[in-house]
């Protein structure tokens, strides 16, 4: 079974294959985030290390893992793949309908990402067409992460980012919002109608961070 094969991966295989793939996914997510019109600051990408890219977006890994589980447990591999995909889609849709009444929009987002991931990974593992397999790789490593990053960037325009209170030793006019972090530093943003202003500060220079929910009062 597929999951059993993943368990048999050696440390060398994990380092040479899995880790670079995760880094690419993280970079694509960060690129989609900072390339979006809400932020428009791709220069920030040069500040990040491979570790920052690896930890960029754990939600995507959850979608991919869900897709792998469905391929392994529900669809059952390459045998009767078409019938299995139909069953998998029906099962996933049923799960989504149940979760929708509990989580609403969050359930819908999870469903869409997991659904696309399911078909993309199926193309990678079982398609004999180089073109279709390439499309699957492109979706998993580039397209989905970039879309997820761009969607996350809408929080800037929605005004739901945490407010940062800096120490009094730093002269700042107006509120700054926590956008991202790397190493022991934080990336702050102050959006205006004409442009965005950015500031990179050490974490120790932050006096406190106000909850995004409190900021929406």
Radius of gyration: 20 Å
Q: Tell me the series of helices and strands, N- to C-terminal.
A: HHHHHHHHEEEEEH
- Give the terminus-to-terminus CA distance: 51 Å
Instruction: Determine the fraction of residues in helical runs and give it as a percent range.
Output: 55-70%
Q: Quick check: average pLDDT? A: 80
Give the strand order of the largest sheet, numbering strands 1, 2, ... along the chain.
Answer: 4-3-2-1-5
- The number of helices is 9
The largest sheet is: 5 strands, antiparallel
Q: What is the total domain count?
A: 2
Structural class computed from helices and strand pairing = alpha+beta
Low-confidence spans: none
The overall strand count is 5
Shape label: elongated
Q: What share of the residues does DSSP label as strand, in percent? A: 5-15%
Descriptive account of the structure:
The N and C termini lie far apart (51 Å). By secondary structure, the protein is of the alpha+beta class. The chain has a five-stranded antiparallel sheet with strand order 4-3-2-1-5. Strand 2 (176-182) and strand 3 form a beta hairpin. Helices cover 60% and strands 14% of the residues. The mean pLDDT is 80. It folds into two domains: 2-156, no CATH class; 159-215. The chain has helices spanning 2-7, 11-35, 50-54, 58-75, 81-103, 105-126, 130-152, 154-158, 212-215, and strands at 163-166, 176-182, 185-191, 196-202, 206-210. It contains nine helices and five strands. The longest helix has 25 residues, at 11-35. 21% of the residues are buried. Helix 2 crosses helix 7 and helix 4 packs across helix 5 (81-103).
């Amino acid at each position: 079974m597929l999951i059993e094969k993943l368990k048999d991966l050696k440390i060398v295989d994990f380092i040479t294959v899995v880790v670079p793939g995760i880094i690419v996914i993280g970079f694509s997510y960060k690129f989609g985030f900072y390339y979006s019109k809400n932020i428009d600051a791709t220069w920030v990408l040069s500040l990040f290390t491979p570790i920052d890219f690896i930890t960029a977006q754990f939600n995507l890994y959850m979608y991919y893992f869900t897709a792998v589980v469905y391929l392994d447990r529900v669809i059952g591999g390459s045998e009767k793949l078409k019938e299995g995909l139909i069953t998998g889609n029906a099962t996933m849709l049923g799960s989504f309908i149940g979760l929708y009444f509990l989580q609403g929009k969050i359930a819908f987002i999870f469903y869409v990402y997991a659904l696309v991931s399911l078909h993309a990974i199926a193309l990678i593992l079982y398609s004999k067409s180089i073109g279709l397999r390439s499309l699957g790789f492109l979706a998993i490593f580039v397209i989905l992460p970039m879309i997820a990053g761009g969607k996350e960037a809408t929080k800037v325009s929605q005004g739901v980012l945490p407010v940062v209170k800096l120490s009094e030793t730093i002269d700042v006019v107006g509120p700054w919002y926590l956008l991202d972090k790397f190493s022991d530093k934080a990336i702050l943003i102050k959006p205006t109608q004409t442009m965005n202003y950015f500031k990179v500060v050490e974490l120790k220079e932050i006096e406190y961070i106000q909850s995004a929910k409190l900021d929406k009062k």
